[in-house]
């Protein structure tokens, strides 16, 4: 069994976005993300119930579209958060250390994530 990642205190100077799996507690809007996910989860349960009850397919598709839009909105919010925090921090660190590859890595990471969202 693997050990869960530890959170990093924002004041200790460590980059909370470093590595392949940054501590997710670093999200500034964690509570809002969780609230949105609970709402989406409820919508998906509603779709499940609609299918189980043989609701008209167009009504189900309408709800699927709503869940899809909700997930897209959350993805956009997380992307914005990543750009504002992780990429910006990498730019500051790259400038201070002269290691321009730091910003290139974060931009490549963000670009790949956006590419996965657009598929």
From TrEMBL:
GO molecular function, one term: DNA binding
Family matches, as Gene3D superfamilies: Metal-sensitive repressor, helix protomer
Keyword terms, alphabetized: Copper, DNA-binding
Transmembrane intervals: none
GO BP annotation list: negative regulation of DNA-templated transcription
Top-level taxonomic group: Bacteria
InterPro entries, per the entry: Metal_Tscrpt_repr (IPR003735), Metal_Tscrpt_repr_sf (IPR038390)
Region spans: Disordered: 1-33
CDD domains xref list: CsoR-like_DUF156
Family of this protein: Belongs to the CsoR family.
Protein name: DNA-binding FrmR family transcriptional regulator
